[in-house]
Amino acid sequence: GFVADMALSAQLAEIGVMLLMFGVGLHFSLEDLLTVRRIAVPGAVVQIAVATALGAGIAGYWGWSFGAGLVFGLALSCASTVVLLRALETRGILDSANGRIAVGWLVVEDLVCVLVLVLMPPLAGLLGGNAAGPEESVWTTLAITLAKVAAFIVLMLVVGRRVFPRLLWLVSRTGSRELFTLCVVAVAVGIAYGSAKLFGVSFALGAFFAGTMMRESDFAHRAAAESLPLRDAFSVLFFVSVGMLFDPHVILDEPGKLAAVVAIILFGKTFAAIALVLAFRYPLNTALTVGASLAQIGEFSFILAGLGLALGLLPAAGQSLVLAGALISIALNPVMFAAIAPIKRWVLARSELARCLERRQDPTAELPTTVAERYLSGQVVLVGYGRVGRRIAAALDERGVPYVVAEQHREIVENLRARNVAAVSGDAADPAVLIQAHIARAAMLVVATPDTLNVRKIVDIARTLNPAIEVVLRTHSDDEAALLRKENLGTVFMGEHELARGISSHVLARMGRATDA
Q: How far apart are alpha carbons 228 and 434 in whole angstroms?
C-alpha cells in the first residue's frame, strides 16, 4: 500500500513554518515587539522555568534521571508558534494587544529554545548522557551562541532594512508577478536557512526577522498577498507531519503518564501564564488569552525530545509522550480559546479575588489629575495609536487641537505620558476607558484601531455617554464600510479610497496644468 515519506513531509512542513513566520513578520514591526518586551521577556522566561520544573518533577516521580527530567520539562515548556498564529488569525486577534503580547512571548520562547538546543550537547555528559559537540566550556559555548544571535539581529537591522526593500523594488520593476512571488519565497526560505546554518538561529525565527525587515518595503502588503496561498498549503503539512509522528500505542501503554503530560501542557502552563500576566497588572481577558495561547506544544518540543534521545538523556518513552501530548494539546487548543469567555464570566461571578483584580487601580488606566482642562472638554478622543493613529495625532498636534489617546498597550501609554500627551490604557470597548477619556464632554471620537470587531460597541458606548458626539471610523473593506454607513455609525474612511483620491487629485491637477500650458 501507500507509504508516506516522513522525512520529506517534515522538510515540507519546515517550509510551511518558514513562510508562516515570514508572513507574521510582514505584519509586525520591531516597534510592536518592543512595546510588549516588559511582559514578554520576564513572562516567557518564568513560564518556561515553571513548566520545566513541573515536567522534571513528574519525571522524577516516575524514576527518571535528572537529565531526562530536565529535557522532558523543557520539551513541555515550548509552545508551537504555528498553532498559536493559526489560532490568533482564526479569531481575528493577531493584530490586537493580546495577540501582540502572545506573539512577543513566543518570540522570546524561541530564542530561549535556540540557546537550549546549543547548550544541550556540551552539557549532556554532566547530565548523564553521551557527551557530544565541541570541547569548549559551557560558558564559551553560551557566549558564542549569544554572539551569533546578536550578530544575526544586527545584520538584519543594518543590512536587511536596506537590502530587502530595495530587492523587492527592483523585482517589481520587471512587471512579472511570478518572479515577484518567487523572490518573496526565496528571501523567506533563504534567510531562514542561512540564519540556521550561519548563526544557529531557528528556521522560524530567521524567517520572522526576514519578514519584519521586508515590512519596511512599500511592497510589504503585496508580498504578504502573493505568499498567502503557498503559506497555507505548506503550513497544512506541519499538522500532517505531527500526525505521522504520533504512535497511538502510547495511549494504551501509558495512559496515566500521558494524562499527566496533557495536564501540565493544558493547565500547568496555562495557570502559570495567567498568574504572570495578572502580576503585570493586565486585565483578566488578556491573561486568559495568553494562557490559552500557550496551552499546546509543537515543533521545538519535537526537536528537543529528538536531541535528548540522541544524546542518551531522554528515554524513548519520553519522546513518545511528548509527541502524544503535542497532538492532543493541538487538538484541544481551540477548545481552550472557546472557553475564555465563559470562564471569565464564571470566575468573575464566583471569585471576589477576580473581581478585585478587575477593579484594581492601574495608574495608566486613569488620566493624571494634572491634565489641563483643555483635554477634558471639547477634545478629540483618539482610539488606537498605531500607524494611522500616530499620523492623526501628529496632525492634531500641528494644529493645536487637544486630544486624549485610548490605547490598549500600557507601554505606549507610558511613553505618551512621558511626552506630556494625555492618554489612558485599556480596551475602548470597556465603558470605563472612554469615561476616563472624558468622552461625555468630547467633541469627536476617532476610532483608528485596526480591530473592527468592537467598533459598534465603542460607538454605542460613546453615544450613550455623549449623544451629540461626532464619530469618525477607519475601515478596511468596501463591504465593511457599507455596513457601517448603513447603520449610521459615523463618517467612514477607507485607506485605499483615500489613497486613490489623493493620487487622482494629483494626477488631475498635473494633467490640467499640462493642458493649460
A: 37
Domain shared by 346 and 379, yes or no: no
**5 by DSSP, 3-state: which?**
coil
- What is the sign of the dihedral through the CA atoms of 81, 451, 157 and 138? negative
User: CA-CA distances (angstroms) from residue 512 to 498, 503, 505, 509?
Assistant: 21, 14, 10, 5
Residue 162's contacts (CB-CB under 8 Å, 6 or more residues apart) are none
Domain that holds residue 332: 6-350
Number of H helices, E strands in the chain: 25, 6
Any domain includes 355: no
The answer to whether 159 and 181 are in contact (CB under 8 A) is no
Distance CA 160, CA 170 (A): 15
**432: domain CATH number?**
3.40.50.720
Place of cell 481551540: 334
What is the pTM for the complete model shown? 0.68
Question: Along the 517 residues of the chain, how does pLDDT read in single tens digits?
Answer: 445 566 776 677 677 777 777 776 776 666 666 777 888 889 999 999 999 999 999 999 999 999 899 999 999 998 987 788 788 888 877 767 788 888 888 888 877 887 787 778 777 777 776 655 555 566 777 777 778 878 877 887 777 777 877 887 888 888 888 888 888 888 878 887 887 777 776 677 777 777 777 776 667 667 777 777 777 777 677 667 767 767 788 888 888 999 999 999 999 999 999 999 988 878 788 888 899 999 999 777 887 888 888 888 888 888 889 988 988 998 899 999 989 888 888 888 887 777 776 655 556 666 776 677 888 888 999 998 888 899 999 999 999 999 999 988 777 888 888 888 899 888 888 888 888 889 999 999 999 886 666 788 898 999 999 999 999 998 877 777 787 787 788 888 887 788 888 888 889 888 876 555 4
Pick from 328, 350, 372: which residue ends a domain? 350
Are residues 374 and 345 located together in one domain of the fold?
A: no
Domain end point (choices 285, 315, 350) = 350
Got the DSSP string for 97-136? HHHHHHHHHHHHHHHHHHHHHHHHHHHTTTTTS---S-SS
- Three-class SS of 199-262: HCCCHHHHHHHHHHHHCCCCCHHHHHHHHHHHHHHHHHHHHHHHHHHCCCHHHHHCHHHHHHHH
Residue 358 lies in a domain: no
As a whole number of angstroms, the longest Cα–Cα distance in the chain is 91
CA distance 433 to 439: 9
Torsion over CA: 113, 115, 120, 123 (sign): negative
Who contacts 390 (Cβ-Cβ below 8 Å, separation ≥6)?
Answer: none
Backbone phi, then psi, for 473, in 5-degree steps?
-125, 150
Angle between helix 37-61 and 97-123 (nearest 10): 50
In a domain, 498, yes or no: yes
Q: Which helix (H) or strand (E) holds 500?
A: helix 495-516
C-alpha cell at 207: 524567517
